[in-house]
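Office hours follow-up: a student asked to see two folded examples consecutively, so here they are.
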Amino acid sequence: MKIRHFLLLITILALPLRSYAQIDQSPEVGIIEHLGDTIPLDLKFVNEKSQPVTLRQLINKPTILSFVYFDCPGLCSPLLDGVGTVIQKSDLVLGKDYQVITISFNFRDTPEKAKEKKNRFIEKYSQGKGDGWIFLTTDSTTIFDITTKTGFITKAVGLDFVHPSAIIAISPQGKITRYLYGITYLPIDFKLAIAEANKEQSRPSIQKVLLLCYSYDDGTKKFGLDVIKIAGILIVFFILSFLFIYIIKPKKKQ
């Protein structure tokens, strides 16, 4: 009887792990981590000042890389708000200890839009330290190259995109050292990611499950909490708790 219960437990545990593995390894939209890989530094972009630049010219210190598109109705602005908030809370100095590079993954976005978006967030969050937060646009081929190399997978839906929400720590040599998921970031995690990037140290992420809690609504063209997925996680938790308390855990002798 105990063996049967054990096999049942393994089967239940395997279901969410299998789903998670599919999301991590071959998602239609999501993140495939490339920790330790070096991003292509010679890719060409245009900054918010309409100047042509390469990542090699820009990345000379620990860098937080974020991907957005400027007309996004969902996660992009909250993500940038999250970056701005952690910039304010961190005791590290933007532009000196690290920098932030935001790249639009929509080839239709222009340097003018990049400038408008940058001004909004610089004024709100970084006390005018604009040189430390750089906004870039580029063509579709370059977008594909940089998102592929960083494992950031999006899907076009009309003029909008389904996309994940994460920021990526890059070392001064262009090495991917950490992924931070979601739209809010703890100052301690942010600072640690920058310190690791400065030392060229790659560290695995522990927050991937946060991606499972978001889905894209084709009707509203916005992201929201996926109630079904959250309910599924809770059901699995309660089933495992039941199995442990009433079946797996040895009964006390009377």
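And the second, which I mentioned at the end of office hours:
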Amino acid sequence: MRYSFDVTDLVDRLRAGGSWQADTVRVSLLPIAPDDEPEPPAVDATAPVRVGTFNLYQG
């Protein structure tokens, strides 16, 4: 299972406001309401979530 999120606009806004600091980036993954899910869960939604790898690329 892979997900990609385009954060280009967010980073551009942070840079424009002088708030972008690449060496102190913090990322939070938060649960959403079941009604907001783009597709039904493939596994038990109450099971713990494990993130194997997280990458942030600058193009």
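Two things to take away from it. DSSP finds one helix and no strands in the chain. The mean pLDDT is 78.
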